[in-house]
Amino acid sequence: MRLAELSERSGVSAATIKYYLREGLLPPGRQVNARTSEYDEEHLRRLRLVRAMIHIGRIPVATVREVLGHVDDDSLGHTIRLGAALWALPQVPEPDGGEEDEHLRGVREEVDSVLEQLGWTNALALRTISPSYRSLVVALAAFRRLGYGEGVELLTQYAETMHRWAVLDLDFMETHASEVEQVEVAVLGAVLFEPALLALHRLAQEEETTRRFGWAGGAS
Amino acid sequence: MRLAELSERSGVSAATIKYYLREGLLPPGRQVNARTSEYDEEHLRRLRLVRAMIHIGRIPVATVREVLGHVDDDSLGHTIRLGAALWALPQVPEPDGGEEDEHLRGVREEVDSVLEQLGWTNALALRTISPSYRSLVVALAAFRRLGYGEGVELLTQYAETMHRWAVLDLDFMETHASEVEQVEVAVLGAVLFEPALLALHRLAQEEETTRRFGWAGGAS
DNA sequence: GTGGTTAGATAGTGACACTTTCCAATGGAA
DNA sequence: TTCCATTGGAAAGTGTCACTATCTAACCAC
């Protein structure tokens, strides 16, 4: 298939596809001659993956390139490749004060004790370098800075829920044979499944809110 | 406190605070005279809230204004205000094809049957207008378009988990008296707590991955 | 009365994700 | 063979976004 057909089948404009090729998000097609290339189903799939990462996962183009680079890199071990890909995903940025702590330090201690209590020894060991750990601490500290510190106490319950979710993810991942696919599935789980589950969560909130308060609910 | 102090205490530059005032994200200070305004602790809190929404929640400035407008609007009922605020949050954009269905239609049917099975009658009734429902369907359709349809079968399990989470949210919310605060807590739950829990989820994934595959794991 | 600060207006910046425009080289149709 | 739409590639342009910088006139403390 040529560029025009790839564009039509994916619903992505030819100019945008050229842009992705230029940026290295899509591998070049098979060169037929100096002025024509041929694309296949794998290109279409990759294009859909890229689009989903950008629009559903809200991942910047440069980051997509980096993440997919790790996914494709078969010179690394399985865990490393997966870790590298997941760690390249966008994270919560540094808080405003630069390094001003207090809340940050308090939350960090609390998170550490929760991890220890849960027996997450691997996560504890990775703590100093894991972006997920940093994101967690920063987000919780912001919450606490607004006066909702008590929310953090539920952390253990939430952590158990999230662990159950992770087990489901990895079970699902292991049903897929190829290593490249396994890493891809894990990345997709983080990039596409998270938004889906957040939408499901908001839907559950809507359900529960209307159950408790009805449709017009509360005073005006 | 004057602008310079507000800036120093929050770690946000004076120019940025002026920008937020201009955009209506912060209410103006108490005018002392033609060229001086006085700000209080409530301004500091609001500023931190805005910063958290923008940087942790990744919400566009215009959307923050809209969401906070709903939170502050005491002319509406409780449920409506909450719904309006949550529905104003950024959602998954339309898929590429414009309206090309098939996957979309299939997923929609599947989601509907899951909702029915769970007895989420309110969510089912809101289905046609709820942005969360749309986001869910679009994200799952993208997943399926990439060949991972089976993931959707776990939907019921995930939905039950998300409902449990929503119940925890609303329980927490109800411990807060003021209506304005209740709506704020719900919005914060969606905006700050979601990133925190996603970080927790990724941490759980790291833990479980290293448990199963070790540190170097898999072939190279 | 002088120097530093303030609110407010206007314009500028850099990142980002495309989009447009141009080109010469093809390749199928007439 | 001639014509003309299409192709890959390069380069410049566009619109949005979240600030950031510059300027002005008023004010206040010393």
From TrEMBL, chains A, B:
<keyword id="KW-0238">DNA-binding</keyword>
<dbReference type="InterPro" id="IPR047057">
    <property type="entry name" value="MerR_fam"/>
</dbReference>
<dbReference type="InterPro" id="IPR009061">
    <property type="entry name" value="DNA-bd_dom_put_sf"/>
</dbReference>
<feature type="domain" description="HTH merR-type">
    <location>
        <begin position="1"/>
        <end position="70"/>
    </location>
</feature>
<protein>
    <submittedName>
        <fullName>MerR family transcriptional regulator</fullName>
    </submittedName>
</protein>
<dbReference type="InterPro" id="IPR000551">
    <property type="entry name" value="MerR-type_HTH_dom"/>
</dbReference>
<dbReference type="Pfam" id="PF13411">
    <property type="entry name" value="MerR_1"/>
</dbReference>
